Amino acid sequence: MQAMENTLGKWKNGLSQTRKSTFGKIATFFGASEISEDTWTELESLFIQADIGVETSLEMLDRVRSRVEHLGLIRTEELQQVIEQELQSRLKTPPELTWGNKPSVILIVGVNGSGKTTTLAKLGKKFQTQGFSVMFAAADTYRAAALEQIQIWGERLDIPVIAGQKGGDPGAVVYDGVQAAISRNIDILLIDTAGRLHTRYNLMEELKKIHRVAGKALPGAPHATWLVMDATTGQNALHQAEAFKEAIPLDGIILAKLDSSAKGGMVFAIQEKLGLPVLFAGLGEKPEDLIKFNPEGFINGLLNRG
Ligand SMILES: Nc1nc2c(ncn2[C@@H]2O[C@H](COP(=O)(O)OP(=O)(O)OP(=O)(O)O)[C@@H](O)[C@H]2O)c(=O)[nH]1
Ligand SMILES: [Mg+2]
């Protein structure tokens, strides 16, 4: 119970930006006035501003509208519950994660700057707290700073890091990482990858290769591939996500920087358009600021519901 309350508090704090701007406007929209054509036009524009995406917004409002007509609702205050139900019904509780393989290999991918390395550190801490032994593999060999960043996290969290040389072959790092995780009896190996190469094509080819190499080093690996998306980039990130999905099989989304986003409606479009579960949300820069996605907490945080 205590844990649940703390989580609700985290959602509320983490989503204060979006609550103060877009979603807050939706929440204050409900009053004594009568529902009219203008109501629907305004709601549509609020939904789109909130980053829900045009198509998803229209679909959601269509459903709200038929429900309102069916129930014979007249005043905008009566709309609130129907909209909240519609928002909530669009979100899925992520599946429980189970780690039947030892080591379980998790590949972290995403465009540059989306929050991969920070998320990897947060996941490392989370799994460690749950009692698993964790190792990092630094397969972003393009930037010297990337290596340094992950090494600092490794030291801080007391998690071993397998790394190659700057400019080295990322595939080799993945292979070595898996071998090291096997020989050191590690439970979970988290692999960090680069977010930018000379071209998008090169990046996708490299990710395919990394994926293949992991499977060669350990049949069945990677056991999960998670795409880190930056919540502040909005609808644009959805197109980027499609490119990753075409290149390699994805198992879930981690939405980083939700705390910095004034929108947050992307969550609705992600589940709809990508058909992938949102597993975790990043609500800050500290290792403990990654929380399991929870539709109820998310909606509470967006609308400041009791
Ligand atoms: N506020 C906030 N900042 C975050 C969050 N996640 C990551 N960041 C910040 O976003 C910036 C980029 O994060 P990185 O983890 O380096 O991103 P990356 O995807 O590894 O970047 P590249 O390796 O350059 O592709 C850093 O300043 C992080 O502190 C989050 O959930 N909330
Ligand atoms: Mg990085």
Concise account of the structure shown:
The chain has 306 residues and is of the alpha/beta class. The chain has helices at 2-14, 16-20, 22-27, 37-49, 54-71, 79-89, 116-129, 144-157, 170-183, 200-217, 235-247, 266-274, 295-303, and strands at residues 104-109, 134-139, 161-163, 188-193, 224-230, 252-256, 278-282, 290-292. It has an eight-stranded mixed β-sheet, sandwiched between helices.
- Gyration radius from CA atoms, angstroms: 21 Å
Query: What structural category arises from helix and sheet content?
Result: alpha/beta
Bound molecules: guanosine-5'-triphosphate, magnesium ion
Per DSSP, what share of the residues sits in E-state strands of 2 or more residues?
Answer: 5-15%
H/E element string?
HHHHHHEHEHEHEHEHEHEEH
Count the beta strands. 8
Calculate the terminal CA-CA distance, rounded to whole Å: 16 Å
- Uncertain runs are none
The whole-number mean of residue pLDDT values reads: 91
- As a percent range, the share of helical residues equals 40-55%
Strand order of the largest sheet: 3-2-4-1-5-6-7-8
Largest sheet: 8 strands, mixed
Enumerate how many helices there are, as a single number. Answer: 13
The shape, in one word, is elongated
